[in-house]
Amino acid sequence: MVYEKAPAKINLTLDILHKRKDGFHEVEMIMTSIDLSDRLFFEVLTKDVIIVDSENRYVPNDHRNLAYQAAKVFKKQCGIRSGVKIDIDKNIPVAAGLAGGSSDAAATIRGLNRLFSTGLSNEQMEKMAEQIGSDVPYCIQGGTQLAKGRGEVLTPLPPLPACYVVLAKPKIGVSTKEVYGKVDLNNMIHPNNELAIKALEDQDFQAVCDQMVNVLEPITMNMHKEISPIKEQMDNADADGVLMSGSGPTVYAIVKQQSKAERIYNSLKGFCEEVYVVHSLR
Ligand code: ATP
């Protein structure tokens, strides 16, 4: 049995540069891992099957599961004939903008690499991950990284300075595809990734907060009226930085002080379906 932790990510920035000929958007975004993780357990089966069990009613356990897809690609490319059982203890909210499925897929590649002693390098695992989804290569190593291209051109960055992250997810699921479909390239406020990277290099927490911009935020907010009151509540509670992650709907606040994190958490509990306080991950 092999165990892997699959951490969620938040976007410190998310920019879209243009739409490519292949239909994907060219992105430039800074992501960072947080201490809210799924736990995955891998076992070898003698019969050549892939069994996924997530015990979560929002997550399919068949070929649609991203961990299943990762196992299929891994087995094919590494020539593995035995089967595998994957148990997923799901803690990351689903369809939330936190890359839960992508992180499970990446953890599956890492986990099977250990289970079958295949000795793939991080670069080889990232290449394999590209076939499963745009955020999966980032999730192989996680941490704080700049992601370009579709998300697969990665540059490691200094970590987000240690802080508390308060996450609030309203009771709606957001389709990433639908949000990207509404992108209007002539009408968006872009983040300044150069300044955001400089802030990380300087380990200047407030400067990082000042550079937090996500071009998808106004789009998802327009589609779902539940999101902006959460942002307002976090701002009113004096959060250091507030942003929607990915295509949403999860909104997060980052703060240095524990007392502030608790205040924000308490102000949102009861108001929002799922609220968490976690740490940034270095
Ligand atoms: P991203 O931030 O990468 O856009 P997300 O956090 O918005 O992702 P996920 O939680 O990955 O979204 O779920 C998106 C969809 O993928 C869900 O509708 C879910 O049914 C499906 N899915 C497939 N496999 C998984 C998995 N292992 N965990 C969660 N969702 C999965």
Automatic annotation (TrEMBL):
GO molecular function, one term: 4-(cytidine 5'-diphospho)-2-C-methyl-D-erythritol kinase activity
The protein's enzyme class: transferase
Pfam families found in the cross-reference section: GHMP_kinases_C, GHMP_kinases_N
Superkingdom of the organism of origin: Bacteria
Presence of keyword Nucleotide-binding: yes
Binding site for ATP: P93, V94, A95, A96, G97, L98, A99, G100, G101, S102, S103
The keyword ATP-binding is annotated on this UniProt entry: yes
GO terms (BP aspect): isopentenyl diphosphate biosynthetic process, methylerythritol 4-phosphate pathway; terpenoid biosynthetic process
InterPro entries per the UniProt record, alphabetical: GHMP_kinase_C_dom, GHMP_kinase_C_sf, GHMP_kinase_N_dom, IspE, Ribosomal_Su5_D2-typ_SF, Ribsml_uS5_D2-typ_fold_subgr
Pathway: Isoprenoid biosynthesis; isopentenyl diphosphate biosynthesis via DXP pathway; isopentenyl diphosphate from 1-deoxy-D-xylulose 5-phosphate: step 3/6
Key words, A-Z: ATP-binding, Isoprene biosynthesis, Kinase, Nucleotide-binding, Transferase
Catalytic reaction list: 4-CDP-2-C-methyl-D-erythritol + ATP = 4-CDP-2-C-methyl-D-erythritol 2-phosphate + ADP + H(+)
Domain GHMP kinase C-terminal: 196-272
HAMAP family found in the cross-reference section: IspE
Described purpose of this protein according to its UniProt entry: Catalyzes the phosphorylation of the position 2 hydroxy group of 4-diphosphocytidyl-2C-methyl-D-erythritol.
Family: Belongs to the GHMP kinase family. IspE subfamily.
NCBIfam families: ispE, PRK14608.1
Protein name: 4-diphosphocytidyl-2-C-methyl-D-erythritol kinase
